[in-house]
Amino acid sequence: MKYSYYPGCSAEATAVGYDVSTRAVCAKLGIELVELPDWNCCGSTSYFSVRELRSFGISARNLAIAQEMGDMDLVTTCNACYTVLAKTNRYMADNAQLRADIVEALHRAGRHYDGNVKVRHLVDVLVNDLGYDAIRERVTKPLTGVRVACYYGCQMTRPMGTFDDPEFPVTLDKLTEVAGATPVDYPCKTKCCGGMLMLTNEQAALRLCFELLKSARDSEADVIIAACPLCEMNVEAYQSRVNKEYGTDFHIPVMYFTQLLGLALGISAKDLALDKQVVPVDSVLAALPA
Amino acid sequence: MRFSTSSMRGRAELGVPYGRLPGETRKAGSREHHGDGASAALAAGGKSSGVAVGWVVTLEAMRKGMVMAQLVTKEDISRLHKVFLDDMFGMPGGEKLKLCQQCGACSGSCPTSYLMDYTPREIIASLRAGMLDKIVNSNTMWMCASCYLCTVRCPAGIKITDMMYELKRLAIKYNLTGGTKNPAMTKIFINNVDSYGRNDEAMLMGKFILTQNWALPFKFASIGLKLVRTGRMPLRLPRSIRGRDELHEITAYLDAKEGAL
Amino acid sequence: MSDQHNGNGGNGRGNGRGQREEKIAVYVCHCGTNIGGTVDVPAVVAWAASQPGVTVAREYKYMCSDPGQDLIKNDIKELGITRVVVAACSPTMHEPTFRKAAADAGLNPFLLQMANIREHCSWVTEDPVAATQKAKRILGAQIHRLPFNQALNPIDVQVNQDVLVVGGGIAGIEAALKLAEAGKHVYMVERNPSIGGHMAMFDKTFPTLDCAACILTPKMSALGKHPNITLLAYSEVTHVDGYVGNFTVTVKKKARYVNTDLCTGCGACQEACVVRKVKSEFDQGLGYRSAIYIPFPQAVPLRATIDPENCLTLSRGACKKQSCVAACGPKAIDFDQKDEEVELAVGAIVLATGFELFDCREEPTYGYGRLDNVITSLEFERLSNASGPTGGHIVLKNGETPKSVAILHCVGSRSVNHQEYCSRVCCMYSLKFAHLIKEHLPDTEVWELYIDMRTNGKGYEEFYKRLMDEGVNFIRGRAAEVTDFAMSPEEEGKLIVKAEDTLLGVVRRLPVDMVILSAGLSPQHDAKEVSQIFGFGCSANGFFLERHPKLEPVATVTDGVFICGACQFPKDIPDTVAQAGAAAAGVLTLVNNVSVKIEPTISYIDPEKCSGCHVCVGLCPYAAIRVNAETGAAEVVEAACKGCGVCVAACPSGVPQQRGYLDEQIFAEIEGALVV
């Protein structure tokens, strides 16, 4: 199983843990990831807010690079990258003029794109291409008794809901079960963390993170797992800001879902970059069987 | 509980500020997929005549270290409104705006609507009424976190998130900041991408803090330090991708089609 | 009935008269600007006048009007016209109109043809030159064909006086009673063990707040006793054969495992049954029944039924006690009973199969099935109903009374994600619920979350005002979500409804104890299959397709089959009863004539030419060809033949001919179309 891999800009900085653990987990599961050479920023939600045609253009450059790599699906781990790249594909398919413009722009840059690269989220690949059973067989250290709040974020299953329900998804919960842990049912699974608003309108984002953390705690979750770099940042790194703002004392460990899965697969915490967490994850590590 | 912007209401009476430096021309590109009545209308408009109703300072100008004022008239304002309307109804899926039942499911679902001057539903109502005063100065689109809950729940199938993106683009184009820091943030973002091909998060935060909000470093000091310490915020010189020129080719060609900012 | 004697040209061949011997009249209609705006009508008329055999060619603005028809009649009488072609709209529009006009003037109606220069010509192009050219071709085809037309007469078919009504809800009951009172024998087939439909589940009905059972049960009882009605409950129609006036319907009578001749409906068996916790369908799953049960005390017929999936004897042979058998005085229980098939012969059919409630699990945002105390409208009816599972007490799952209730409109309706239509009755029944809650629990706060208030019936607006007067809180806004995630102490333990109050422009969180979902009305899950059994279809939204949405709402495209009530589209009880009456009137119009005339454009097989290969017999989709035992030739059962033409095409010897569509006629049309 071979895929081209788009890490996303955060993978080099705040989400380095996501990138490291993704590679480690995929290696363990026999999934070969080939990083896109010289990929550029997908544009995320910000670029699209300023220019439309241009943002499709720069996003499509990555798709063109992926096409050159051969007949493989492109997998990404960041929700926003996933949505932007998939959206580029869809809009190009639906709109002949847009497609012509983008193809021409790429051509001038020496790139070619036919519109046939399939963009996949890592969760989709693990669940639908590899399958729960295949993963379960390789779990050596089930996280029995660990209560996990699966935080999907808003852009994994919305707007297209390609591989899971837009509001009540189950894939991460099932992956959690495969890892031996117990997913908790809590109301904020796909509720927005605020995203970029944490920098520009802090109040809005802090409130959303507060609600998320509160509902996770009310459901007695031991750890929150996330699938998007920005979500993870907001919920983890800004927990102290939430505490300051709301007078709470949240110290809920947050990690990327690949890190949790990686632990269950027997990969060491260090190899999963779990030493880079802002909120300590010792309680989760302690629950690992010896 | 809604965030009221009385300061902005005052500005609305002055006239809508929109950014166009004197002498700058626009190309009316062919944009079937993105109705650009915008450029064409303004290009056709030419110099404004009529009684001046206010002054405006453009953000663009300030960054260049100059203070330049642009006279705006009532005709300019109504032309801007027409541009907004044509653009919004012309975007793909824009015709669905006519099908809005005004049910409010979007506003009820939106995680930040309580902070918006006008809820998404009110924005659509204003568009249909042609009363753009509310929209052009509002902070609504900047509060949108693109969570797509509105789009998924809308019974008329309106792509509300895409509508918000379009409003953001129009607002940036005409320098309507809605009193928030979001436009500045997004501009820094694309600047980074255009310059280096990727977004260095440290650079993004750094630039944003320095230009926008001097208080932020104090708020984020502890977090920032932790991130640096754990290696999640490497402080290093920005590196650019090899294909930076490719990006320039792509963006230059598409800019010619879309019309410059 | 002999083919030779109805004047329909025994040998099935053309009479060989050529064009020049007929007097053809041509009329070209402008149809306002529909045709005249694109086709150059004067040019077409002038061209037609020059064609061989054409005695007169005229144009008129609206041929279908009285003066237009008079043109045809006068020419027939005064000029001795023998063939007519009207170049106008589609024959499906006005062929009957013009053929009747010809008949009135004494010309056999089958000697008139229409040339469709509207739907096939002026409505499919904007190019006047091309349109005029094509109009000439279409007209030319008919001018060439006409001399080969033969005079044909409709065929009389006997009509069976009995009627079948499918569905025993208020619509079916009403139609059946009206027909029975008119002296017709009615068979009623109902799939559930009792008639009554959804109305039997309701508590009160809007706007009068009559008790539903009080107004329904007398009708149910009257039906059960009526000498003219044969009730086949717990039965389904599996097959329909035949045609208008002569339907043969196969009905499967499902086994109740109870001898209905002996059962008295005393109910002792359901008390004795050891399986007591089967979720009651009638109570919408809020209450329980036994494996042997009578669905509700007022059931008609009042007979017990055993549910084979839950009965221990029938499902696993494992019931040692069989206490029902012991409890039954008349010894009516019969575990060996089998399904039975019967055949009914009827002249007309009325379908009144009703609706299903929208499945609220398809709208998980509102928490149905996930959160306690989120209930559907039908569930609320059962709660409020005095003979329901809680004895008429509106209570929460834990038995406490709710202090606040929110009623959410438009669940599953008016949405691209579910049903796009408005279900018509939900606004009114939501108001009714608000009233019932206020009546049962005067101190409970009620919130109605609506988008538009659709209260447009007699007394409906007044009902709405009454509810405003009763202090119900109205919020204009579609609920965005229902959650149990409390964000403040007042919200703990409650259901929170989040919605924008659009009239205020503020997003509100309403903490309530109970949420009622005003679910829309959906078509029955098997509506498509059922419609096909009866020979018609469904509209895009899944409900039964009527013949014409405005002028024929209770007829279908199949003669003799009628529809009424919610199976055609959601509607309230007054409209349902009205439609049931309309369907009954349609049936009576049909069956009150001893015979009915059917179109003569059917197949004829010349026995002298038939070689007896019988290929056509198996191919006929209507089983309308049989073999004559004496001659061995195939012959057409005239009343069953629909004139589809399959036998004409299939016969290796080219023997079957379809009257009105003879080979000569078709070839002449083709030649005529190529003349221009």
Written account of the structure:
The complex is a heterotrimer of chains A (290), B (261) and C (676). Chain A has 290 residues and is an alpha/beta fold. Chain A has 2 domains: 2-122, Glutathione S-transferase Yfyf (Class Pi), Chain A, domain 2 (Up-down Bundle); 140-285, Rossmann fold, CATH 3.40.50.11810. Chain A has 14 helices and 8 strands. Chain A has helices at 16-29, 44-50, 53-68, 79-94, 96-108, 122-130, 132-137, 171-178, 197-200, 202-218, 229-237, 239-246, 257-264, 282-286; strands at 2-6, 32-35, 73-76, 119-121, 147-151, 182-183, 223-226, 254-256. In chain A, α1 links the parallel β1 (2-6) and β2 (32-35). Among the domains of chain C are: 3-154 and 662-674, Rossmann fold; 268-327, no CATH class; 356-522, FAD/NAD(P)-binding domain (3-Layer(bba) Sandwich); 602-658, Alpha-Beta Plaits, CATH 3.30.70.20. Helices cover 27% and strands 22% of the residues of chain C. In chain C, α1 runs parallel beside α5. Chain C is globular. Chain C starts with 23 loop residues before the first strand and ends with a helix. The interface between A and B is large, with 71 and 70 residues.
How would you describe this structure in keywords?
heterotrimer; B: 261 residues; mainly alpha; two-stranded antiparallel ribbon; 14 helices; globular; disordered N terminus; C: 676 residues; alpha/beta; FAD/NAD(P)-binding domain; five-stranded parallel beta sheet; 27% helix
* Rg of Cα set of chain B: 20 Å
Major sheet of chain B: order of its strands?
1-2
The portion of residues assigned to helices of chain B is 40-55%
Report helical residue fraction of chain A: 40-55%
Helix/strand-derived category of chain A reads alpha/beta
User: How many domain modules of chain A?
Assistant: 2
Write the element-wise H/E pattern of chain B from the N-terminal end onward.
HHEHEHHHHHHHHHHH
What's the tally of helices of chain B? 14
Most residues in contact: chain pair: A-B, 71 and 70 residues
CA radius of gyration of chain A is 19 Å
DSSP E strands of chain A, number: 8
Low-pLDDT residue intervals, each spanning 5 or more residues of chain A: none
Beta-strand portion of chain A reads 5-15%
* Inertia-based shape of chain B: globular
Distance between the termini of chain A: 31 Å
Main β sheet profile of chain A: 4 strands, parallel
